[in-house]
């Protein structure tokens, strides 16, 4: 029997947001975790704000690490496992980088040897602190740290794809040194799959670390272009799960939908539950799914200023810890039995060349062909063009039909843009 799909939430503290590390209140954390556990989920993803934990390159604050352990132990008391993100990094439109990497001390996050040494020491320390906790899942290197590596970030830390691969390998090794045998991974936002000049590549996402993580947000142009109730919008999470499999080194590598949410106003509050239900249903039809972790647990309090408007209402629970309709949908899914989905036997060919990632993005021919197939009930997956004729690879993945975007989409009209 395949392992059961896991359901969890990204933990956003109801009091103080992630600034709660500055005034850590374990009783408040326990109350938050009680409201999360009541949903029937089995894990939380926790964010340790990097500058608060490592304000100097050679100072990893012991008290902050103790607070992280206390949070993990409180989660265990409530039957919740914990995944920890280390290099925050970027959260809800705000950057959190230590002063020893910025302005007068400006050094590249991915290539400067001293910075990389400091990052490795930090990740190793957090992993080691939790290594003996049975409910510790493992480390995620950071939250969408690829956004620092290229535009549209206003002050990127440029690096090449080989440099990023070396950085990812080093950081994952540091996590493994701290907590051997745990599920350590890295996670990027969808520019990895859609943005051709991103040095974080699909191959890195699908081959480095214990599982592949994807983050699905339909404010990336999907909901704007296709509409709230469209197949692309409701199946965007499933698309990223299946898209990642084209690059996987192993035919049944697990994929974790680590972030997905219902962003207003593209998904209005009154329609958020329906979007949540449709998204979960579509993703559960993907084989080799490790889990679904919803963004996020609690709303951002309106007492905090300067967040983008959509960030205030993404919680399954309000900042008063009251459950919303979306929470009921996730809770029902978490408590239900889900049979293993049938293999996806139709594979859409995608280009292996990372310079062609624009074809995979909303509006691109691969994106549109995938959803044309999905709308027709074909349950597609994907395969790299360089593997499309590899009979052994196709057989290992139960693929019996290979199609190209040109075979799925109608020919362009005379004079139309190709």
UniProtKB/TrEMBL annotation:
One of its GO terms (molecular function) is hydrolase activity. It comes from the Bacteria. Gene3D superfamilies: Glycosidases (3.20.20.80). Keywords: Hydrolase. The keyword Hydrolase applies. This is Glycosyl hydrolase. It comes from Streptomyces broussonetiae.
